[in-house]
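Hypothesis: this fold can be encoded by more than one sequence.
Test: take the structure tokens below, design a sequence, compare later.
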């Protein structure tokens, strides 16, 4: 009867361990799942991993191919979870390294507790009760260690999103993969049977009682520091890319300002010369040289076309930018409509406004290039509403939007990718200078983005 009860306990212990480890895995993955359907996808992840645990078996320290099978499973269902395969693989291997590291540390404490609680009686009931208490304590201790270690690792990973290409994935996976392999080797050596006698690794080599958990902790800390290092490198690359983009945009806006200055300087020069032109026209008319008069007027008309801005926004910088985008649309066969009126109040910097318009309209042009020629359009609206100024750009677009970790559409350009996809980040950063924000609302084949600015007081 006692033996039957212990068998029941073993079965319940396996089920409890499978449930507990699966909960830890699901909670570790949960913050990285899409926010819109996080609860449903977390439940899917929990169900799939619990089923895998029950099918593969649930030894205390994962052995053999069970961990590999579960990692492959997580990578296989990554699309259903809303994760990239690289991200799912990385999270899985981080989890297994943390779980094995915690298990090795808990196992050493279990060995110490077992030696400090010697068996007082040889009755089967006392032996089984002692085993039940020790195994339950071991599971709870490992659960606490695993929860704390996963929380620390998860918190660090959430501080700075990383673009996981396969090269970065290899860097990040090197130490945790080594930790998993180390755990697999040690788990094979923990127990050994000789002549019917069960020997433990720590009995044969007492020095390992400190060395094994210390190495397990080092593998975990190495993984944590590798994540921090990669995040620092990613932040540095992003800062360099932003600096490069801002420099390029600054040069572009300065070029537009110079164009505007040259434009109005040309108008002033033409105005200054107009009196002479009128005198020449009057002289040709009085002398009856009507053919020469017609040629002269035609030349004047052509020279005046160079100083014609088709759109007037109320500011020379935005005049040049919007007019330039309109000309580009005409060349590409894109319908362009603009109802943009620069705010009359002095609470906005024309340079900042130019950065916003340049990025929004350039992105709209690139989106229209991928749309069929029939139906391509761009609409620009900018209006003052009280202390707020709203800029709205709508354009046609084709295909799906890939959202980046910053909540903005990610670039689909392969060439020089780090230099692309940060235009909207600059728009949002500029809007935040004016206590505003950016709202993106894609709808079928229509893409709409609205920028709200608040007038500085």
């Amino acid at each position: 009867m006692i033996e039957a009860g212990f068998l029941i306990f073993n079965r319940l212990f396996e089920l409890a361990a499978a449930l507990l480890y699966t909960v830890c895995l699901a909670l570790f993955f949960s913050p990285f799942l899409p926010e819109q359907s996080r609860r449903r996808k977390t439940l899917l992840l929990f169900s799939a991993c619990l089923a895998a645990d029950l099918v593969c078996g649930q030894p205390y320290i994962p052995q053999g191919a069970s961990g590999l099978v579960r990692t492959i499973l997580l990578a296989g269902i990554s699309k259903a979870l809303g994760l990239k395969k690289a991200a799912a693989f990385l999270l899985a291997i981080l989890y297994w390294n943390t779980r094995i590291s915690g298990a090795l540390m808990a196992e050493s404490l279990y060995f110490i507790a077992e030696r400090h609680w010697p068996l007082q009686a040889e009755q089967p009931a006392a032996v089984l009760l002692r085993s039940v208490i020790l195994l339950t304590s071991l599971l709870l201790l490992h659960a606490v260690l695993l929860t704390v270690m996963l929380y620390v690792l998860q918190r660090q990973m959430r501080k700075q999103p990383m673009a996981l290409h396969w090269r970065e994935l290899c860097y990040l996976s090197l130490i945790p993969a080594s930790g998993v392999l180390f755990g697999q080797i040690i788990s094979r050596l923990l127990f050994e049977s000789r002549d019917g006698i069960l020997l433990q690794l720590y009995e044969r080599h007492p020095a390992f009682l400190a060395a094994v958990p210390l190495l397990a902790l080092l593998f975990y800390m190495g993984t944590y520091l590798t994540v921090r290092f990669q995040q620092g490198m990613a932040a540095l690359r992003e800062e360099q890319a932003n600096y490069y983009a801002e420099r390029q945009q600054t040069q572009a806006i300065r070029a537009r300002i110079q164009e505007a200055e040259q434009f109005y300087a040309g108008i002033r020069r033409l105005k200054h010369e107009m009196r002479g032109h009128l005198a020449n026209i009057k002289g040709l008319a009085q002398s009856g040289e009507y053919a020469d008069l017609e040629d002269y007027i035609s030349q004047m008309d052509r020279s005046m076309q160079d100083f014609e801005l088709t759109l007037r926004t109320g500011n020379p910088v935005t005049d040049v930018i919007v007019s330039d985008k309109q000309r580009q649309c005409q060349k590409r066969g894109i319908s362009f409509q603009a109802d943009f009126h620069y705010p009359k109040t002095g609470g906005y910097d024309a340079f900042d406004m130019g950065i916003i318009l340049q990025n929004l309209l350039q992105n709209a042009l690139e989106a229209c290039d991928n749309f069929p020629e029939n139906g391509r359009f761009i609409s620009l609206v900018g209006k003052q509403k009280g202390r707020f100024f709203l800029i709205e750009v709508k354009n046609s677009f084709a295909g799906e939007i890939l959202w980046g970790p910053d909540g903005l559409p990610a670039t689909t350009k392969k060439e020089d990718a780090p230099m692309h996809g940060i235009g909207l980040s600059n728009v949002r950063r500029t809007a935040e200078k004016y206590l505003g924000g950016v709202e993106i609302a894609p709808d079928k084949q229509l893409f709409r983005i609205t920028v709200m600015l608040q007038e500085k007081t």
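The first helix runs from residue 2 to 29. The first strand starts at residue 191 and ends at 194.
Hypothesis status: open.
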